C-alpha cells in the first residue's frame, strides 16, 4: 500500500503553463527537456534556465527537472553541474544512453539528484536503479507508438523496482490520456509527469463547474 501521496509533475517548459497549473498546489514540480524548451520558444541556455527556474519556484514548484545537453560525457557532466548549481531542488535529467549513464554516475558521485530519462525498456530501469538515481522516466506513449504495450511494460518496470525494494521512483512520462494515469495509479504507480493538455482533461470537468455554480446560486438565494 502506498504510504506517500502521488507525485505529479507538469511536463512543460512554458511559464504560461506553469502560471496556470502550479498555483493549484497539485504539482510537485515541472519537468523539462530541450524539445519542450524548443516547443515553448525558450532558449536552451543556462541563463534562460536560471530565469525559468526562478519563475517555477516562485509559482510553487518544489522540484524542477532540467536536462543536460552536450556532445560527450564531459560536456554532460559540466552541464549537469551548472544546472544543479542553479538550485539544490534541480533534478538533473540525463538520457538513458551509454554516455548519459556514464555522466549520471559521475554526477551521482557528487551527490547530484539525477533523473534518467527517455527510458524505453525495463533493463534501463534496472540500470538506473543500480546507479541509485532518484527517478527513471519511461516514455509510455512513445513505447505504444512503437507497437508495444506501453502500459504493461511500465507496470512491469514498476514491479521490478518494487520487488527489489529499490528507492528509485518510476516517473512515468509521455502520457497522452489522463485515464492512463488513473489506471497506473490503480496498479500502485505514484509518480507521473503530464502535459498541460492531460492536466486539463484530468482536472477541468464541466459537471464539477455546474455543481459549483449550483452551490453559489443556492448560497445567493439564502443570503450568501
Ligand atoms: O517527458 C517526456 C515527453 O516530453 C515526451 O512526451 O508526448 O513527446 O512522447 P511525448
Overview of this structure, please?
The radius of gyration is 19 Å and the shape is globular. The protein has helices spanning 15-21, 34-39, 46-58, 73-86, 98-109, 122-131, 140-145, 150-163, 178-186, 196-203, 206-221; strands spanning 7-11, 27-31, 63-67, 90-95, 114-119, 135-138, 169-170, 191-194. Helix 4 (73-86) packs across helix 5 (98-109) and helix 6 packs parallel to helix 8. It has one domain (7-221): TIM Barrel. By secondary structure, the chain is an alpha/beta fold. An eight-stranded parallel β-sheet has the order 7-6-5-4-3-2-1-8. The structure holds SN-glycerol-3-phosphate. SN-glycerol-3-phosphate is lined by residues 11, 31, 33, 36, 139, 141-142, 173-174, 193.
Largest sheet: number of strands, sense, barrel closure: 8 strands, parallel
Distance between the termini: 42 Å
Bound molecules: SN-glycerol-3-phosphate
Overall, the morphology is globular
Count of the domains: 1
> H/E order of the elements?
EHEHHEHEHEHEHHEHEHH
Task: Offer a quick outline of the entry.
The longest helix has 16 residues, at 206-221. This protein has one domain (7-221): Alpha-Beta Barrel (TIM Barrel).
Features:
TIM Barrel, 8 strands, globular, binds SN-glycerol-3-phosphate
